[in-house]
Amino acid sequence: MKTLLPLTIVTLLSTLSTFAETKIPSVYWQITTAVLAAQETDRENATVMGYRSDGSLAVLREGSNDLICLADDPKKKNFSVACYHKSLEPFMTRARELRKEGKSEKEIFDIREEEIKSGKLEMPERALLSVLTGKINEETQEIENRFIRWVFYIPFATPESTGLPLAPQIPGGPWIMNPGTHRAHIMITPPKN
Fold it and tell me: In terms of residue numbers, what domain contains 139?
């Protein structure tokens, strides 16, 4: 017990130090960049979730359409934002809860699979998610080298039920990922220039 206390204190101080070094961008910047993953016509009325000064995730702007956009996580190295149909929010929220509990990605997959099959967790029959990645220009704070890809969730779909291959047949061609599971989805990843 005596040896665990100093280790716990060192771990806590290290975590607090890392958190203190993470600069949370302004709400304006988070909203402006989060909606870049949405169609231009949907951006103004999308709900945006981002990070408070304490690092917690919160709704930064309530929207009036069916889209939720998620701001870039300032604790992660690479810039990435996403927008998805609001029907996916229970699925997304559950993953965040399980990550907070320290679950691995495999555990999250298995838990959500079981909860969706049992009816405990709601999953839409189909829903689109778009992800935009890029690089932050440190001087201008603009997002450069933007790249967008789409994920169309169709739970429990298979190559047989959709006619989709298990890998793209041409650069940027659609294919099905995680077939036969709750996370079955069509991937559309345009070729990078």
Answer: 24-188
